[in-house]
Amino acid sequence: MTSLLLIRLLDWRVWKHREQHKAFNGRKAIRRFILGANITAIMWSVYILKVISNPLSGDIDLSTHIIIISAMAGGSATVLAGHKYTAMAYAFILLAPPSLGLLFSGIYERQMLGILGVLFGIVIVVIAKKNAEFTAQAVLLKNQNAVLVHHMEEKVERRTHTIYELSNLDPLTGLFNRTAFLQHLKLRLLEAKQQQQSLAVLFIDLDGFKKINDAIGHDTGDQVLNNTAQRLKHLCHNHQLLCRWGGDEFLLAIEDCDESLAISRSEEIIQTLSAAYTFANNRLSVGATVGIALYPQHSQNEHSLIRLADTAMYAQKKRSPSTVGVFSDQLEKQIHRELLLKDGLSQAVDKNQLHLVYQPIIDANDCQIVSFEALLRWRLNDEMIPPDEFISIAEQYGLIRKIGQWVLEQACQTASSWAQRHPIAICVNVSVAQLEDDDFVDIVEAALQSSQLAPELLHIEMTESVFTSDIGLLAEQIKALQDKGVKVSIDDFGTGYSSLSIMQDLAVNIVKIDRSFVERIDTNGYAIITAVMHMARALNYSVVAEGIETQSQMNTLRSLGVDYLQGYYFAKPLPIDQVEQLISAEQAPKLLAES
Asked: What burial class does residue 65 get, using C-beta atoms within 10 Å of its C-beta: 0-12 exposed, 13-18 middle, 19+ buried?
C-alpha cells in the first residue's frame, strides 16, 4: 500500500510539473488517476478480506477496519464525483467484497455487519452517482457561463470598437475623421506650446476629382480617395494627425515644422498624389493643391489654423492649381475684401448701385458712330469697384446671371431710345455662365420685346474663354441668337483659345482684336493683327480693333483693312447724358474726336 501511494504521489508531482508548463496530456493523466484509485480500492478490499478471514482478528479490530473503509467509501462519493463511474466503482470495490465476506462468515454478529455493509454500499453507490451527475451539471453550467461571459465580453469589445470607429474614423478611407483629428490636434498644440515648437497644418484638396466622379462614377471616385488616403499614410509619421476632412479634402498636421519644411513636404505630397492611378484598365490622374497655416505665427487655435489653411488652399487653387500656398495677412485681407464685395454685389441690383457707361465704336471708313459697347460700373460705399475685380466675383458666386440679365435689359432699353433718332447698335458682354443657361436665348428675346429694340441693333459679345466650355452648346446658342437677328462677336480675340476649326464651328459675325496687340502694333503686334485679318476675311467676319489711343495706331489699322475702331483716342466710356449729346449732335464724329 505504501509503495502504491508513493507511486501515485510521484505521478501527481509529474502531472503538476507538466501542468505548469502546459505540456501534459489530460486524457492520459485521467486514465492514470482512475487506474491508481481502483488499484488502491482493490488493495484495501483485499486487505479487509484478509482481516475478516483471520481467526485471530477480534471484533474491535474488525470493526475499526470496517469503519475506516466505510468512511473512505463515503468520502469517495464526494471526492471522486468528478468522474461518475470511478466514484461508483471505488465505493463498490471497497464495500462489496468485505460485506459479502461478512455475510458468509457464519457468525451472526458479522452477518449483521455484512447486511449493513451491503445496504450502506448500495446507498453510497447511489449517492456517488447522484453527486457525480450533480457535479457534471455544475461543471457544465460553469463552463457555459464562462463561454457566455467570454462571448459577451467579445461582443461588448466588438461593439466598443464599432462605436469607436463610427465616432473617430472615416468609414471610406479608415483615416481619422474631423472630430478625432481636432482632438489630437488640440493636444499636439498644447504640447507644442509647452515645448516651444512650431507646427504646420496642411489643407489638401484634390484637383480634377469631380470630373472623375462625374465621368466614370462614384465607385471609381471612392477608389481614388482610398488610394489617396493610403499614399498620405505612407508620407505621414503620426497617423493621429492625418484625417479626411470631407469630400476630396484631407488635413495633415506636421510637428516641429517651419514654413520652408512645410512647403517642401507639401510639394512632396503633391508629387506623390499626382502619380497616376490604375483601376480596371483605366489610368487616372488627379492633382492636389495644398494650403499651409503655421503655429504660432498665424494662430494658436486648432479651428482657426484649419480655417486659415483652407483659405490659403482656396486662394492658391484659383491662382495656380496643383501648387502650394502659405497663408499671409495680405491673403486674409484679400479674402475679406472678396467676401465684402460678394455680399455687396448680391444686393447691388436691388440697391441701384449699378449703372452703365457706353464707349462708341467707329466705322473705320467714315468715322461715324455705328454702335456703343455697354460697360458695367459699380459704386459701393462711395468707392468705384473696378469691373475686372467684381465681374470675376460675380461669376464665381453665381451672381452673374442676375446682374447680366439686368445689364441686358438696361442696355436694350437705352438703345431703343436711341433708335428713335439714329439706328445705333448696342454691344453687351455676356459670360460663359450666361451662355450656358438653357433659357439665355429666351432672356434675350424677352429683353428685346420689352424694350421694342430691333434684334439687328443688339450685339452679344463673348470672350475667348468660352471656347473652353461645351462648343456644341455654344454653337447652338449662337445659331439661335442669329436666327432671331442678333449679331454675335468674340471679344479679346487672339489672346488664348482660338483656333480655325472652333471659329468656323461657331460662325460668329464679328471678332474684336484685343487691345494688347494694338499696343504692340509697332512690333510683333502688327504680324498678329495681320494674321487675324486674314483669318477674319477667310471666314467672312467683320473686325473691330479696340484699345486705340493714338492717331498712328488708327492709321495703321485702317491700312490693314480693319472695319471698326474703338478706344480712348475717340472717347472714354461715357455716361448716358453725354451719349445723348453725341447722338443728338449733327457732327457727332467731330465732337467725339474733340473729346
From this structure: middle
Residue at 505: amino acid letter: D
The span from the CA of 284 to the CA of 277, in Å, is 5
In the three-class reduction of DSSP (H, G, I as helix; E, B as strand; rest coil), residue 326 is classed as strand
Residues 228-237 pLDDT 10s: 999 999 998 8
- Note the pLDDT tens digit of each residue in 116-145: 888 888 888 888 888 888 888 888 888 888
Cα–Cα distance, 412 to 345 (Å, whole number): 22
Buried b (16+ CB within 10 A) or exposed e, 406-427: bbbbbbbebbbebbeeeebbbb
Q: Does 171 sit behind a cis peptide bond, omega within 30 degrees of 0 on the bond before it?
A: no
Contact assessment for residue 68 and residue 61, using Cβ atoms and an 8 Å cutoff: no
Helix (H/G/I), strand (E/B), else coil: 277: strand
Q: What angle do CA 116, 120, 124 make, to 5 degrees?
A: 175
CB 403 within 8 A of CB 345: yes
- What are the C-alpha distances in Å from 18 to residues 7, 15, 423? 17, 5, 114
pTM equals 0.61
In the block, residue with C-alpha cell 501515485: 8
pLDDT, tens digit, 9 for 90 and up, residues 537-595: 888 889 999 999 999 999 999 999 999 999 999 999 999 999 988 887 644 444 444 44
Closest CA to 489 of 422, 566, 555: 566
Beta-carbon count within 10 A of 60 CB: 7
Residues 317 and 289: beta-carbon distance below 8 Å: yes
Residues 223 and 245: their CA atoms lie apart, in Å, by 17
Confirm if 92 and 120 have CB atoms less than 8 A apart: no
